[in-house]
Design brief:
Layout lengths: L12 H15 L6 H14 L3 H10 L5 H9 L10 H6 L12
Amino acid sequence: MAATAREVNETDLEGIASYIIDERARELAFEGKRWFDLLRLAKRNSYSNLNVLVELVSKNADDALKQSAINKIGDINSHYLPISENELFRDPALKQNPFYLK
């Protein structure tokens, strides 16, 4: 198969990581794990691969909303869901995700 026939140099760590992420996308299609794989890849080395998420959003977002979506995905706090108000009420030590305080 052409998708898996790609040659990766054993010293190219970024190429190996990209190949593994692509292979997981094929193997785990429709299982809901893609976002977490991409987020883990983007977060590696202090978000040095944030462009992976930005490219994904720019390819898939509606043209009218594309710039807004790119700006939001660039904020690392947007990658996580808000904490439920009930949980915040029950445990005063919890702090809401800053992205949802805006």
